[in-house]
Amino acid sequence: MSGTAVVIGAGPYGLSTAAHLRAHGLKVRIFGSPMASWRENMPAGMLLKSPPAASALSAPKDGFTLNDYRRRTGDTPSLGEDGQVPIELFIRYGLWFRDQLVPDVEDVRVSSVDRQAHGFRLKLSSGEELQAAAVVVASGLTGFAHLPAPLAAAVPDGPSVLSSISHSSQHAGLSHFTGRRIVVVGGGQSALESAVLLKEAGAHVQVLTRSAHARFGTAPTAGPHWQPDTPLGRSWPLHAVVNHAAAFRLLPSTTRLRLVKRVLGPCGAWWLKDRFEGVPVIAGRHITGAAAGQGGVTLITTATDGRSHSLEADHVLAATGYRVHLEALDFLSPELRAGLDRAGGYPRLGRDFGSTVPGLHFTGLPAAGTFGPVQRFVCGTSFASPRLAASAARRCG
Ligand SMILES: Cc1cc2nc3c(=O)[nH]c(=O)nc-3n(C[C@H](O)[C@H](O)[C@H](O)COP(=O)(O)OP(=O)(O)OC[C@H]3O[C@@H](n4cnc5c(N)ncnc54)[C@H](O)[C@@H]3O)c2cc1C
Fold first, then answer.
1. Cα 73–Cα 229–Cα 101 angle in degrees, nearest 5
2. How many C-beta atoms surround the C-beta of residue 211 within 10 A?
3. What's residue 118's pLDDT?
4. Residue 10 Cα: closest atom of ligand 1
5. Choice from 33, 37, 267 to test ligand 1 binding pocket (greatest atom count within 8 A of CB)
6. What are the FAD/NAD(P)-binding domain coordinates in residue numbering (predicted)?
7. How far is the CA of 158 from the centre of ligand 1 (A)?
8. How many alpha carbons fall within 13 Å on the CB side of residue 46?
9. Least crowded by CB within 10 Å, which of 233, 301, 314, 351?
10. pLDDT in tens, 290-305
11. 306-330: string of b/e by CB count within 10 Å (b at 16+)?
């Protein structure tokens, strides 16, 4: 069937997918706010956890990696002490990639996608309606922010920067917390880096984590030399998930879901450890209750020995991650969502990233349930985008 391919989302996965679709000569429309998650949902001053080599968007031709961008444009601010990429540089790179390869991104929201006899009917926030032969959902983290139940119960109107409980995705900067008592909940890179940025901004910050202590990873080249290097680190397990994403799909779904959770699980980057020095950590505690009011938040936490403690803060910043659940993709019609086979909240995908609704593809985080943890990272675009584009080209061409 010939027709338009639509990409929903203009982050690393959407931009890369659209570039590959274009290279197949397809008519493509791509909707979304370019690099929005990086501009609006992550704190200014953040350094990427992934090294430069693992922070490139896949393009259909050579010359469009982060390092190419730096070389070609002369945008060469110093990287972090250990070669880390500042978020501001990564955003400029993403916008340059857009300008070079997908200049006609339309900054509008897709408000609904419905199935019709031959393909899909979409409505946009601009009021326009259109038809598509194939749809690629590349909406990334949008809608998947997760808050532990006691925190969610304390803010019935939802977390927000203006209330006393927020999710880390609601902050594009943390400098306004100077002088305030902040509890950061979580033990991953987002929690530990937010705590460092808060400390450096003059906030009184504590980290509350379920783990026995704050954990930090090792340098990408730290493993034994007989282990293989990958863009995400040196080890056989990483080599397997980075280079064999196609085979990952063939594992039983319970194994896949366990690996997606565990491989590259919550821990801070090795280079963050020194800057984290001096941040108090309340470890081994679960939040079992929370009360939020004008004056701040009281958290009830329970330790592994069953004893409860209470903790006061002006603000609780929940860096508690993202959980894929398809009901959050409310722009997909209930009929479409009902037609999607799932495993643990993730859509079940074929080897071409197609879902059980013909013509509807998913890439990025929702594809991690099928192809593994590499889909949670920018470097996963090099596996996903060429495959997905080749399949959509067959459908639309
Ligand atoms: C704090 C933090 C730090 C991270 N650091 C790293 C790192 O160092 N390295 C790394 O590889 N990964 C990192 N990640 C993961 C990273 O977010 C993903 O790898 C990457 O952003 C995924 O890209 P994406 O295109 O799938 O989604 P996103 O970047 O989330 O982009 C989603 C896009 O979808 C659009 N959109 C959503 N809904 C609609 C709609 N209905 N209509 C139209 N458009 C829509 C948005 O406007 C946006 O353009 C980090 C994540 C977080 C939270």
1. 30
2. 16
3. 85
4. 49
5. 37
6. 5-213
7. 21
8. 29
9. 351
10. 999 888 999 999 998 8
11. eeeeebebbbbbbbbbbebebebbe
